[in-house]
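Cross-check.
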Amino acid sequence: MGLGVNSSVHLCDRVCSEEAREKLRVELDIDTKEVIRLAKLMDFCWLRYMNPDFAQL
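Predicted model, tokenized:
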């Protein structure tokens, strides 16, 4: 079973809101911790696009 996700933008749509995370959790029958881990990994992937000046704000 796949997530139907092929980019971090698609993943964001699936994990950025509490309602979306709950829907994904039920759909995949996984623990809430795992959904949160996906959200954190998505955040981490986006860090490479952040320049150092913005990161210091």
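The mean pLDDT is 80. The chain has one domain: 8-50. Passed to J.P. for a second look.
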